[in-house]
Amino acid sequence: MDDSQIVVWEKMDETIIGWLMYDADVCCNIEKAYQEYVENKDDKKKVFSLDNYFCIDFSIMEEIELNYGTRPVHRLTYPSNSALGMGVRWSWDMKVYHQNEFFPYSADVSNYIEEHHSKDKTSQVDLFKQFPDMNYTIDLLRNTQVNNSTGYKRTVQREKIRHNFPVIKSKTKTFAENNDETSGNKKKKLNLSTEVIQELKKFAVAVTDPNDEDCCICMSSLRDDSAFADPSKASHSGFATVLELKTCKHTFHSDCLKAAFKSGAKKSSFTCPYCKTIYGVKEGNQPPGTMRHRVIPQNIPGFRCGTIQITYHISPGIQTDEHPNPGQPFRASFPRTAYLPDNSEGRKILSLLYVAWKRRLTFTIGTSVTTGQSNVVTWNEIHHKTEMRNNRGHGYPDPHYFANVVAELKAHGVTEADLK
Question: What is the pTM of this model?
């Protein structure tokens, strides 16, 4: 039995607003560099250069385009007998400037179409049933893609891939899997309470003689047991009953702090429940997408300089465990555009916004304040000027905007110290 798999690398592309496969030969080069990164874990090898204008930073899984910004990349594996493993992929005609230009479907979609093609070459494939962000039906008999809402047709084609994708053994564990998808047996052996307390040691120190004051989480005295304590288990496994956070000096029962830590969306950071001081690097649950910018010649009211135009793209998709309703689709209304003056202050804020984007803090999934719709991508309390002029209160002039957005970024843990 063949236990090998192929590896496919994809990037988020705002031209098609979705995942775009790298060519197979490029995937081979990326995978070779990635395996070196996994084996060496050497900071010098975390960036793989594609050419003079593009590179991939494996530590944050992003392609960096030197002139325009960043876009997410991800690594997928498929059986060797899958469509892509057998050298077949499907593409659709984008028709740029009335010229045929075929874009490959994402790896998942391409494999899905080929599965149906292998069963019945005359069938129709409703992509929307499997991919909620693709409201199309593929007519395999006529080689067309039909928009289910508008009826617009495009040509599709089945093509042979000139190069082979990289091959790995299925038992091979990637760097991400070893960190985020620990094997079931090993995960079951972990004592979760011990693991969480160990994590908190980065942010807190033990207090051997706490003051007679209340824990602001459970509102019981610090000298009494926590309301979150489990009386059936041994007392704290040798850990302190009370912990003091290192920066803000606020104190809590260790069990209370452990409960607060476990309820957080990310375990790479922790926010003080009392004063909201951030420990570690805060990360959000923003879906994958792209952030780009360019300078345009128009002036923002109040500034005699060019204008930085920021464009965000996020595609609709399915919510994961870090979102409010895992497994349900979410909607995304994009692209979204924002503006900054092209001066020193504007460029500094642009750099801070890039940090927030990389940490997945700019957007989240929730309920739209303007429409009341749930399960949609919304701004995440980092305000942007989405108009150049103040027609609806979303543009310039606004003498307080720079100070306000810097304060909002700081509340998410993004400061000028991150630019050094």
Answer: 0.53
